[in-house]
Amino acid sequence: MESTNFTGISGARSARLRDVFAVWSAGRAGRTAGRWLALGLLLWSVSVRAEAPRFDFYLLALSVAPAFCEDAPQRKRGFAQCKALSERDFKRVPLTLHGLWPNREDRRHPAYCAGKSARAFCALPAPALPSETEAALRQFMPATADCLERHQWAKHGSCSGLAPAEYFSASAALSARVNRAIGDELARHMGREVDLALLRERLRENDRSLEQAVVFECRTPRTPDPAKRRPMLREVHVYFNRDPVTGAPGQPLPYVRAGAKHYNSGCPRGRAYVDSPLD
């Protein structure tokens, strides 16, 4: 993370500003110098906005991998993360990282801030990450086998104002935090229903500040198997403030302040089926 001076301007940005004033000092006096200065300040301000577009909070999206893989036949056949999924994998990390998304209160969420998108995730450039960050990311995002991290960086991370290592380190750390709070309970209920009230109780016991920040999302998978066409816990969404100093995820944010109406999104009778990779 770039350090900031007393003005709140990072070192790199401050250097660009000094360059602008150097152009002004070396330019011709009077009107020409003024034009150089105005142009330089305009370019500098545009570069700052491009680095970190305005957004209000982060949404951490965590998937229940068996339910994700069940949602379409081609996923089971074609996605490396689904073909490799096992009971051991699920019990080790019940909630896998989908993404960490900069969001806005007006729902006009920023996306593709570096201008790169592709239908095939593996056609995107891989973000440069230190080995320890890569290892943590592979643990919580098995879909790196399908290049999901490239898509997440291109669409969401590029809008965070963070460097790739900072963005993915925060993503992995927050994923670990939520798994510590409710992962064991989800693993115990593999292949059966769990009461959302019980999951909220575990949040309260293990990480109280998360309780009001979590929304449980259930969906009925688009599967050819009639026995599996039932509402399943598909994702867990967790909201975090944007730290005003660093721009990184800060404290948990109550879901109502992020615009969600209830902690239960589509789970009948307040219960959620936890799909099993063995089914």
TrEMBL record:
SUPFAM superfamilies recorded: Ribonuclease Rh-like (SSF55895)
Organism per entry: Thiobacillus denitrificans (strain ATCC 25259 / T1)
Alphabetical list of Pfam families matching this protein: Ribonuclease_T2
GO BP annotations listed: RNA catabolic process
Highest taxon of the lineage: Bacteria
Protein family per UniProt: Belongs to the RNase T2 family.
Listed GO MF terms: ribonuclease T2 activity; RNA binding
UniProt protein name: Putative ribonuclease I
InterPro entries: RNase_T2-like (IPR001568), RNase_T2-like_sf (IPR036430), RNase_T2_His_AS_1 (IPR018188), RNase_T2_His_AS_2 (IPR033130)
